[in-house]
Amino acid sequence: DTGVSQNPRHKITKRGQNVTFRCDPISEHNRLYWYRQTLGQGPEFLTYFQNEAQLEKSRLLSDRFSAERPKGSFSTLEIQRTEQGDSAMYLCASSVMGSNQPQHFGDGTRLSIL
Amino acid sequence: AQSVTQPDIHITVSEGASLELRCNYSYGATPYLFWYVQSPGQGLQLLLKYFSGDTLVQGIKGFEAEFKRSQSSFNLRKPSVHWSDAAEYFCAVGLKTSYDKVIFGPGTSLSVIP
């Protein structure tokens, strides 16, 4: 169990640019979640994958956001035409199937929009 | 709607003192309950979880939590706080939906005075 890995740890970009984050879940976990966390707040759910299928998306996930999980392994979260309000920590979590299974979190990618 | 509240935004305790962090939830059924801890710049680490059975659950790092159905509460406790416990603490509710949605509270920031 090497844990959930997220890259990059930090991303600084200019407003209007596109950014892509990567998440490598724990290998045997078939569920993968993306969250956004702003300062002083708890994580807010963005989207969820079961294997390669994206089964749920939050209303927070505007059409500038897209997530993929090809082959049910790693996942990417892309933000197009970034805005100041996109500045946040983006957390990835994974879990095994089962409604009582806890989610294991990566250390997140901190996005700063100049 | 489901929600999680953590009434204390920030708590300061002296090292060696006891600690109690409050958590209340709003949900129509008995939820799954979690406490996570987050150190600065890090992801969330699971401290403990409640699914069913004994309402007093033990976790890592000497933490425990008690589920009280009548009060819709799941307070976190530790008998003697160490300086390394300074961090952000999040209570979370797991809902029994199709994708096991987890809702996080806003967090309580803990400072420890040496």
In whole angstroms, the N-to-C terminal distance of chain B is 41 Å
List unreliable stretches of 5+ residues of chain B: none
Major pleated sheet of chain A: 7 strands, mixed
- Low-pLDDT runs of 5+ residues of chain A are none
Distance between the termini of chain A: 36 Å
| Overall SS class of chain A | mainly beta
Query: How helix-rich are the residues of chain B, as a percent range?
Result: under 10%
A few lines on this structure:
The complex is a heterodimer of chains A (114) and B (114). Chain A has 114 residues and is an all-beta fold.
Structural commentary:
The complex is a heterodimer of chains A (114) and B (114). By secondary structure, chain A is mostly beta strands. Chain A has strands spanning 5-7, 10-13, 19-24, 31-37, 44-50, 53-57, 65-68, 75-79, 88-95, 104-105, 109-113. Chain A starts with a strand and ends with a strand. The model of chain A has no long low-confidence stretch (mean pLDDT 93). By secondary structure, chain B is mostly beta strands. In chain B, the strands form three sheets. In chain B, strands 2, 5, 6, 10, 11 and 12 form a six-stranded mixed beta sheet that branches. In chain B, strands 3-9-8-7 form a four-stranded antiparallel beta sheet, with no helix packed on it. Chain B is globular. At the A-B interface, strand 5, strand 9 and strand 10 of A face strand 5, strand 6, strand 10 and strand 11 of B.
